[in-house]
Amino acid sequence: MGSEMCIRDSNCRYGLIGVNGAGKSTLLSIIMGELDYDDGDIYKSPNLTIGYLKQNSGLDRNSTIISEMRNAFSDIIKIEDELRLIEEKIKFMGRNAVSVQADITSQDSIERMKKRVSEFKMPDIIINNAVIQYEWKSLLDQDIKDYYSQFESCVMQTVYMTKAFAPYMIKQNYGRIIAINTESAALAEAGCSAYTSAKRGLDGIVRCLAKELGPSNITVNQIAPGWTISFADRENGTQKQEAYDSTVPLRRRGTDKEIAAMAAFLASDLASFTTGAYIPV
């Protein structure tokens, strides 16, 4: 079984296989509405059948389950195409969707994304949540390029996305811009100076934009997650982190769904008079 593949057939049945952290469980949660997945299970909904197999699976490759999955699925597609699964699920719900890949550190790439999106419909809401991952070190040991990568993926992402999509929002006198910041911007802990400095720069951009775009009925806000429970935590059983949990008033880590709930609130008319906010979640 390959480590970078998704298997699909014409009857809308899928097999999903990938390395740890590739996003298999996240994708399955979106499609199937489930949180916990077992190695070798096949999940079914009215329109989809999905087989789930962990990388380095403990299942014998000649087992009945593996044979069943091999028989059920065909036509290999790349893991990069997994967003199309989400598109199809959304369409099954009676809504429209389109997925477009872009390099958020490149203005040219974002402009190409804008052109593709404009063929569908210009967005009323944008959420800027990408960031380049890197190894955290002390400032003296941190590579200079990491400071540039963090600035590009935090600050310039928001600049490029705003330049691309805010003019349409201004024209229609409505819009929502949401940026994913971090608690690190406020805590400024040792060992994360590249990340913290970029996120504090993002905070400044958002506050300026809130004042610049407010007259056009566009709100601009930030969500600042702490150390959030992810699907990797659920797969690895690492949800509890006692040292960190003890610093949180509710004595637990937040979840990805709780971050999404705040994003949904800020994108809705319930938050029509909320702008320029930095909201820890």
Describe the fold and architecture:
The chain has helices at residues 24-32, 64-72, 83-92, 107-118, 144-172, 184-187, 193-213, 231-236, 242-245, 256-267, and strands at 4-9, 13-18, 42-44, 49-54, 76-78, 125-128, 175-180, 218-224, 278-280. The chain is an alpha/beta fold and 281 residues long. The strands form two sheets. Strands 3-4-2-1-5 form a five-stranded mixed sheet, with helices on one face. Strands 6-7-8-9 form a four-stranded parallel sheet, sandwiched between helices. Helix 4 packs parallel to helix 5 and helix 5 packs parallel to helix 7.
Structural descriptors:
alpha/beta, 10 helices, 281 residues, five-stranded mixed beta sheet, four-stranded parallel beta sheet, 16% strand, globular, 9 strands
Count the strands?
9
Uncertain runs are 1-20, 72-80
Q: Structural class, judged by helices and strands?
A: alpha/beta
Question: What is the typical, i.e. mean, pLDDT?
Answer: 79
Gap from first CA to last CA: 39 Å
Radius of gyration: 21 Å
Helix content: 40-55%
Q: What sort of overall outline do the alpha carbons produce when their principal axes are compared? A: globular
Strand content: 15-25%
